[in-house]
Automatic annotation (TrEMBL):
InterPro entries: CaCA_antiporter, NaCa_Exmemb, NCX_ion-bd_dom_sf. This is Sodium/calcium exchanger membrane region domain-containing protein. It comes from Culter alburnus. It holds the Pfam family Na_Ca_ex. It comes from the Eukaryota. GO terms for molecular function: calcium:sodium antiporter activity. Residues 104-245, 425-575 form the Sodium/calcium exchanger membrane region domain.
Length: 584
């Protein structure tokens, strides 16, 4: 429904823009360097972040293609597809509404792919790494599992911070996701299952998140972030992790002294575990029972070819009939992508006896995994590099992969994984991370193009489309787990995830940008909307920090309704500010 409304909005906006452009066609425009000039200098000025590509909609339809080709800001996106060139050069001007509609559908597909990689490939490998390192549930919950849950947000922020003209997307997405989670998700949980929240973990998470938001507010007010401040974001998260570990230790110690036993997992999970820990209840146990139901009664040995074909088949014919038609449609859309990911990303499953060892496929992963790395890193810049001007890097990668793959194939068996099988989780982690980064770059590029065409700021696109796309899956998952009787776990996952996203998204994104350019990254707010967004997020956190203790930490339906109304009012004010109906 949201996509249909957005398409309708896009079509109306484009029709209005086409009329306005036709009225300006008679004006004389000449290129001066990379800036095109006209008689209306006020209309052809750079936007707040100096993005020259925004000027393309001020030109006539016949001049847009040439402008896009000669403007660096229109060709500097990190994605593989050059959307400005496709929009203004490949398609005729009268099909612009159709092109934007296709972009909206493509954006929906990209979000599906992003969630698929994170849930089915990135998170399982992170879980396997934490198991190999023998981390406790608390440490794993706030480190590896938090990274798995926040991977789409973090990588989207890193992709947005890669260029100054899209930095507003990162700020809008991180702040927008924060206010969406703390109001819509938390309010929905309170509506579905009123409960008493664990006091100390709740206060701890809210305080740390308020510190992160206030710190970001100061950075935006200054207009730049230094190397020490970027490292401070990462340092603050380390302090948060240590606080979680110490609080868990103190809690276990006190409970052990009071009860005379060491059993403290029940309530501790509700208070401490974060991120994807609740998914073990939601999906892991169900899949385990399904797997036991369909296990063969008598063991049999499959051939190497059968193992390979079964391993790359993403459709389970035994459960296909029980799925809803909507789930089948989504599955059909995701099948080609799943096959590609199965061929390139190894997955180590510690819950299975064989740890998901598939000898022929895992041998192929030694070739395809590194190949994906060199072809996706920096948009394939290094993969296509010629060694001494003659030998491509990707060919060298394939040759080394074939050699190592042959060694593994002839020194292992189909039935027993080798001792070094845990290394595949590291390879799967790297490859899936690069896949996520690639998809996130495409999402940022599409949103940047939509902002240029619809004349919307990156901040409003970040707080709406990008924030919704990255958070809607967690929203439904949290509500589902609350309905199953685990509201404390759901609310813990809400706050723990957004703390990680805020600190790592800004800290790591700016840090990588500093390594590429200089020791200072400029963060210029895009008008009043950025301050409205940060003020609304801070106000919602302060309200929760005061109101929840006054209610004895009981979240009832009235509190949930208030949070939902707060988000609706915020969204209306933000959009009215964006369209300059409200001016401060």
């Amino acid at each position: 429904m949201r996509s249909m409304l957005l398409v309708l909005f896009c079509t109306l906006a484009l029709q209005w823009d086409r009329v306005s452009c036709q009225s300006n066609t008679q004006q004389h425009l000449v290129p001066v360097g990379n800036v095109w000039s006209s008689g209306r200098s006020a209309d052809v000025t750079l936007n707040r972040n100096g993005d020259e590509c925004d000027m393309v909609m001020n030109l006539s339809a016949s001049q847009r293609c040439e402008f896009v080709k000669n403007t660096p800001d229109c060709t500097s996106d990190e994605g593989f597809i050059k959307y400005p060139w496709v929009t203004f050069c490949l398609f005729p001007p009268n099909l612009l509404p159709l092109v934007i509609t296709l972009y909206v559908i493509w954006l929906f597909v990209l979000f599906l792919i992003l969630g698929l990689i994170a849930s089915d490939f990135f998170c399982p490998n992170l879980s396997a790494i934490s198991s190999s390192l023998r981390l406790t549930h608390n440490v794993a919950g706030v480190t590896f599992l938090a990274l798995g849950n926040g991977a789409p947000d973090v990588f989207s922020a890193m992709a947005a911070f890669s260029h100054p003209q899209t930095a507003g997307l990162a700020v809008g997405a991180l702040f927008g996701a924060g206010i969406f989670v703390t109001t819509v998700v938390a309010g929905s949980i309170a509506l579905v299952k009123p409960f008493t929240v664990a006091s100390r973990p709740f206060l701890r998470d809210v305080i740390f998140y308020m510190v992160a938001v206030f710190w970001t507010f100061i950075i935006l007010y200054k207009g730049h972030i230094s190397l020490g401040e970027a490292l401070g974001y990462l340092g603050l998260y380390i302090v948060y992790v240590l606080t979680v570990i110490v609080s868990a230790y103190v809690y276990n110690r006190q409970k052990h002294q009071l009860n005379g036993s060491a059993q403290s997992s029940g309530r501790e999970q509700g208070e401490i575990l974060q991120s994807d820990s609740y998914r073990e209840i939601q999906s892991g146990s169900i899949q385990a029972h399904d797997g036991e139901e369909y296990e063969p009664l008598l063991p049999y040995n499959q051939s190497t070819a059968q193992i390979f074909l079964n391993a790359i088949n993403p459709v389970d014919s035994r459960t296909w009939r029980r799925q809803h038609w909507s789930a089948k449609v989504l599955k059909v859309i995701k099948v080609p992508v799943e096959v590609l990911l199965l061929l390139t990303v190894p997955v180590v499953d510690t819950d299975k006896e064989d740890r998901n060892w598939k000898r022929p496929l895992n041998c192929l992963h030694i070739i395809t995994g590194p190949l994906v790395c060199v072809l996706t890193f920096q948009s394939g810049k290094y993969g296509l590099y010629l060694i001494e001007g003659e030998f491509p890097v990707w060919v060298l990668t394939v040759c080394i992969g074939v050699f190592l793959s042959a060694i593994v194939f002839f020194t292992t068996t189909n039935n027993h994984p080798p001792r070094y099988h845990f290394l595949y989780s590291l390879l799967g982690f790297v490859v899936s991370a690069l896949w996520i980064s690639t998809v996130a770059s495409e999402i940022v590029s599409v949103l940047h193009l939509l902002g240029v065409v619809l004349r919307l700021s990156n901040t409003v696109l970040g707080l709406t489309l990008l924030a919704w796309g990255n958070s809607i899956g967690d929203c439904f998952a949290d509500i589902t787990i609350a309905r199953r009787g685990y509201p404390r776990m759901a609310i813990s996952a809400c706050f723990g995830g957004i703390i990680f996203n805020m600190l790592f998204g800004i800290g790591l994104g700016c840090l990588l940008q500093m390594f590429q350019n200089n020791n200072v990254v400029t963060l210029e707010p895009e008008g009043m909307l950025c301050w409205v967004l940060s003020g609304a997020l801070g106000l919602s956190l302060v309200f929760s920090f005061i109101a929840v203790p006054l209610q004895c930490f009981h979240l009832n339906r009235v509190y949930g309704i208030f949070l939902l109304l707060f988000y609706i009012v915020f969204l209306i004010v933000a959009l009215l500010t964006e369209f300059r109906i409200i001016q401060f």
